[in-house]
Amino acid sequence: MKKRFVSVLMTAAVVLSMTACGVQAPEAPAETPAAETQEETAEAPAADSAEAVTPAADAITLVMAEVNPLDTIVGMTDLKFKEEVEARSNGSIIIDLQASGVLGSENDVLDTMLGGGGTIDMSRISAFALTPYGGQKSMLLSLPYIFTSRDHFWNFATSDLAQEFLQESSENGSGVRGLFYGEEGFRHFFTVNEITGIESFKGMKIRVSNDPVMNGLVEGLGANPTVVAFGELYSALQTGVVDAAEQPIANYKSNAFPEVAPYMILDGHTLGAIQVVITDEAWNKLTPEQQDILVEAGKAASEYNRSISEEKENEVLEQLKADGVTIIEVDDITPWQEAVKPVIEENIKGLEDYYQKIVDMK
Question: Which region is the signal sequence (predicted)?
Fold first, then answer.
């Protein structure tokens, strides 16, 4: 009886002590606010709105990497994919979208994905980013002037040939597989100093990502390819490490490059073909029904990408002009095409049939 009385007193003392010290149950961490859209006229999917799907108790979370901000064409496409997956799965699959390069560059992300461990399950990447990982077919999509228009690209992206390209990395044992294609507009060069045309590029240091096609393209222009990580590009332009770089119009603006390189020439050397990839490790953990959800959500995101890309790009281009960026039009693309013929011939060896099939889709 005495022991029981002492036990009750000790319990009461602990409770009083906790109350006096203000100890409370830990609160759930505050939700990180989503990136704000810089262009108010562009409506991104409301992935973090009040109508967002509530995660199921046993939900699977897939971490997805994006190097660009969420207000870009690719960022908005990612948000649409996230929204579609979570809605179609009734919250049983959650896409943890990490944007603005917080998980590293595209190559860093791919290295992590292929290294295993499951810290990054998915990523939106440029099609040519798979080239060092055995994606030889994907490399064709970044060849200069292979696509003559957006419609030409979408003729490819909705074809059976595109599905063959998407599965190349999985079939060759690289460890990732493609889900769907999209595009972020044609890529153009932008420079620190004023330019007038193709002749202005001779001797310039132009940023590349150590991609053989881009290296060859830059050399064809008489310039010097200089490898710089994307996350360091702003400072490289600012400090003179490089004189120029290239990006789609929307990414050029969203990454504040006009502040340090206010001249853009609309040469459209490459259409920014993109794809979303998932590791085989993450894919194999999903049920067939869940895999189908990702595929169907990818189709919806691809269609959404197609519907917004040109309009979004045109809005950004007009805003750049209003902000004082010098936009140089290219009246005759022929000299550019002639300059890059060697890089095309070098990189289609053994893939001539595939190259011709794409060319013929225009």
Answer: 1-25
Q: Over the range 28-45, which residues count as b (16 or more CB within 10 Å of their CB) and which as e?
A: eeeeeebbebebeebebb
Burial profile 162-194: b = 16 or more Cβ within 10 angstroms, e = fewer: beebbebbbeeebbbbbbbbbbbbbbbbbbbee
The Cα angle at residue 62 between residues 106 and 139, in degrees rounded to 5 = 30
CA–CA dist 73, 309 (Å, integer): 6
CATH number for the domain whose boundaries are 60-359: 3.40.190.170
Q: What is the average pLDDT across 145-150? A: 96
DSSP sequence for 293-340 = HHHHHHHHHHHHHHHHHHHHHHHHHHHHHHTT-EEE--S--HHHHHHT
User: pTM for the complete prediction?
Assistant: 0.82
- pLDDT confidence of residue 17: 41
Residue 216 backbone class (left: φ over 0; alpha: ψ -120 to 50; beta: rest): alpha
Question: Side chain identity at 187, as an amino acid letter?
Answer: R
What's the count of helices (H) and strands (E) in the chain, helices before strands? 15, 9
* Residues ≥6 apart with Cβ < 8 Å to 355: 140, 143, 146, 348
From CA 290, how far away is CA 294, in angstroms rounded? Answer: 7
Exposure letters 269-296 (e unless 16+ CB within 10 A, then b): bbbbbbbbbbbbebbeebeeebeebbee
pLDDT at 15: 40
Residue partners of 77: CB distance under 8 A and separation at least 6:
124, 182, 274, 301, 304, 305, 308
Are the C-beta atoms of residues 81 and 44 closer than 8 Å to each other? no
Residue 216, pLDDT above cutoff 50:
yes
